Amino acid sequence: MPDGRPRFPFARPDLPPPAAWLDDLQLSYEQRWFSNGGPLVRRLEGELARRDPAGGRDAVVVASATAGLVATLIALGLDGPVALPAFTFPASAHAVAMAGCTPVLCDVDPLTWELSPAAAAHAVREHGCVAIMHVRAFGLCRDLAAIERVADAAGVPLVVDSAAAYGGATAGREPLGRAGIAEVFSAHATKVFAAGEGGFVLAAPELAAAVRRAGNFALDGLEVTGRGLNAKLSELSAAVMLAALEQLDDVVERRRATAAALLAAARASGLPFTLPDGIGQPPWQGLPLLLPSAAARDGALSELRRAGVEARPYYAPGLQRTRAFARCADEALPVTDELSERMLCLPVYSRLEPGELELLAGLLTAALTTTKEEHGLSRR
């Protein structure tokens, strides 16, 4: 690393080049319509909805997944506690707070790494939660029937934060977007569906209309109908998202191949690690591995850093350990603590130069082999 930068950074954004989307902006320029639901935004919403016609949901594009979560919670008319996992990126809890609700942080299941149905049910009973927010950790694509049953039994809506998961599918090859009352996705530069910034919400038509209204300052004509925000997407961002959508299937295929090669390289090291149960068919924004101990995780991070590979801990610390959200959990969350101390997340790329994958895999095997030997670990 002669310039101080890793050979393999944690994220290597791969957005469509300008040539793929500049021509699409001609109509926006002709109409001088650059925001507030312009022609490209409307076209993008139609194409996103058509990608899963069996889902029966409309798409509402938004400035970010966080804005989409806020607009969805506002559209549902919620006011009160919302249960969500502590093992997640801070945006999930920020969205709850920005929507005027109170985050109630819950523990996750040790086998799935996602919100524990039992913990969510407990939060609804003990705290009177008015909704549940499930987060697809690392963009994994499991069946959410168990958490849906909890929400249905409690009579509260389930909102699914699928920020990192677009392009994935369940084990039964069903595209994402049908779970809960709404699913929210990101098009941030670091995501697989990468457009710089942006996102979208998939929901039934009536709720989608309410989300769109909430994201436009809660305006209905000249009437302000309630709480709202500016969650609108510009035509320029819509043009990039349209181009990203065209290349998405190819990008996901390449990332899955890269993730498979890195998994094979990790296994070749002999260092024990685990993956969660029932992951479906993720698009692999990153590759998370749960190592045997916090010391092994920290050792692997150091070895990879020396090799020029920027791996990271994830999601660490758990939100209940942060200053902003420390008061949002009234009990210990041992699984969240354990996962955040042992989780190693590896970079996965959409595009690699010839020979790069072999080099990255070799560096990974060598670093994890050294970690195994230094900590006296071996696969049983």
Automatic annotation (TrEMBL):
The answer, when asked if Cytoplasm is one of the entry's keywords, is no
Keyword set includes Translocase: no
InterPro entries cross-referenced by the UniProt entry: DegT/StrS_aminotransferase, PyrdxlP-dep_Trfase, PyrdxlP-dep_Trfase_major
| Keywords recorded for this protein, A-Z | Aminotransferase, Pyridoxal phosphate, Transferase
A single MF term (Gene Ontology): transaminase activity
| Signal sequence interval, chain numbering | none
The family assignment reads: Belongs to the DegT/DnrJ/EryC1 family.
List the protein's name: DegT/DnrJ/EryC1/StrS family aminotransferase
What organism is recorded for this protein? Conexibacter stalactiti
